[in-house]
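Much of what follows relies on a compact textual record of a protein's fold. Here is one such record, which you should read through line by line:
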Amino acid sequence: MIKFSKLKITTVILVVLTGMFFAVPNLFDRSEKEDFPGWWQPISLGLDLLGGSYLLLEVGVEAVLKEQLTSVQESVRAALRKERISYRNLRVGDGVVTVNITNAEREREARQLVRAALQNDGAVVQVAEGGRYRITLPEDKQRDTAISAVNQSIEIVRRRVDEFGTTEPNIQRQGQDRIIVELPGVDDPERVKELIGRTAKLNFHLLEPGIGSGVNIDPRDVPAGSMLVPGLAEDPTMYIVERRVRVPGDRLVDSQPTFQDGRPVVSFRFDTAGGRRFGQVTQNNVGQRLAVILDEQVISSPVIRSPILGGSGIIEGGFTVQSAQDLALLLRAGALPAPLTMLEERTVGPGLGADSIRAGAIACGLGLMLVIVFMILTYGLFGVFSTVALMINLGLLLGVLSALGATLTLPGIAGIVLTVGMAVDANVLIFERMREEVLTGRTLFNALESGFRQAFKTIVDSNLTTLIAAILLFYFGSGPVRGFAVTLGIGIVTSMFTAIMITRLMVVLWLRGTRAEVLPISVAAQARKRIKALIVYLPQKFSVRFVEKRRIAAFASAIILFVSVGSIAIQGLNFGIDFAGGILMEVRAPKAVDPATIRAEVGSLGLGDVSITTFGDTGRDISIRVQRQEGGEEAQSIALRKVQEALGTDYEYRRTELVGPKVGAELVRDGALAVGLAIMAICFYIWVRFEWQFALGATLALTHDVISTVGLFSVLQLDFNLTTVAAILTIAGYSINDTVVAYDRVRENLRKYKKLPLLELLNLSLNNVLSRTILTSFTTLLAVMALYVFGGEVLRGFSFALVWGVMIGTYSSIYVAIPVLVYFNLRREDMLAVAPTTTQIPEAERIPVE
């Protein structure tokens, strides 16, 4: 392991230089990135850092299918009426068109007519006794229709966003019928949502002659083949219009806002076929009224004074300049084939984004500085080596993120901070193993060789388990949580590379250059002891009897789990907006305000439970939480507009989150599934690498940590949201990292000391890795505490969970995972695949058992 060929050195240098090359654009001002080629760009900033809106839309494909069935219904009606065949109960329902032919003598003729009329629609006609027809659309046609509707919706949303002028929007499909829209830098998200969400389906119909409109129209007076359509919100008139579409809006090729007689209007122009059809309609119906229907509302109903043969016209509708511009934009972009439902909305103002970047930079910088100082004080020259490796690690991490075109989010910054804390773990494992080998009397060369070789297996096992958690978090997570998973996953890989390759290369070059015979770690330790350094001195050898305290630990764990489960059962979790649904707003007032005043204003809106809290030092930052509204996703958007109208324009809207009931339920399910699968996958890996007793111990330790963390959030009634799930999975990865290190030493000692009693061997193994555990936990806590103090309000709960997780994970690795091996009778022969090297432990290293 200590030997390094020239080829390997060259490869390592090339990898480092490549990573640094791709990281270089991040050193320049982001306004200069347009000068760089597309393949050499800095990391893209997420909306929570750059500011902007994230929208999750659902395409109502059911409406498209229903519209197709309605078209089938009208085709059947027209065919039967033309031949004067009597029928009744022609209706659409439950995905089926049904009709009863009342004239039995003409039933055969009716069947032929219906099938001929529906030949182009591909509909399936089933005839039952009594002349009852059941007409359906084949499943493949329904599936193709749904796919086409979603694809067309994505394209039209993209056109509308492009027309609006948003820079670098991200529009992509999610699942079968959902669309993600990310709009960086948008300062008027409400107008964008209005433009994106409107169906903008424009059609031209004729009003029913004689009874075309009125204020109070009895629905029973609507003749067959016609429908009752309301006017605009300010127009109480109801219109009876023919169902038949005379000219469809998809024939429009251009639409522009203009003025007529000083009033804003919208001009339009048809394509050739549409212009010809419009001319025929107006020519054949002079004197009748034309209904211009937009999104199931009559926006204009002019009288046709004369034929309009030029293929163009204007729409009058009492528009303002803004509404005329918006309608023209929508008509140019095209009508959505199906309605869009807003399932989730997250908006971050540019001010909060800048604050988040500043807070993240402070947290990263402080965490990095604390870890560097600690490592240098602890390991001297080798601490300098680990510092260089850590800086290269961060450079590689940024380079990989830039090369992949990844997006950095606020949780992603948290992932970098956590990577800083955990990156030194592999170095600590190597250095502590070297120190052990020196204490056994090995030469420096042999100690370095053995240290790298023995630590390699542990590094791979411990980091792969954390990587499993990151992969599952990415797969089941969404939005910013995925950003955290990407950063953490890449950070784990780069940390392994820098520890195994970079640190080793520096140690090899140092050894070749100095021909040293003394390990500088030991020299530094003796020097610290003499000068009474300002850090806790770790002894060269521990002799703590951990396993004898297993009953006390079991009692303590039982109390922790009892309180956690009891709290979860009695008072439950304080689900955040992610899971419970509802509205969360973070606003900044122009001056300090009384929360009671805002609570009275928002509470008077009749939106149910409203929570108002202040945070920060100025009294200007206010968090407003409104419970999930009854009535589905649309009700949440209405409630959000009411709150914004009540607050007025004096407030700065720094963050807005809106989650509907459907998404909230899905996130609860996916979060629980991610945690459960993470535990199962990690424990399966432990089973494969060790034995079933180890897998059982890891499972119990992970379950202990997850339940206690969830219980802590229940007891303190902290917000339990998506970032909390990310924290739990990170805790699981960190905890199993500790457990694997201890298990690896147990496995090694079982093979090394064949006749040593199990309890004494377990104590020895824990003491062997105790210095590593203390140092790793301390460095991770340094980084996480920096995140907790300086990471900002959004990550407060996340970093708090990590602080708890580091402590409870270390505890469970020692007092839950190891005692399980005793309780379930770990058999030495299961682990003796390798011939033992020592039959008993030297007396100097023995730890007495009480």
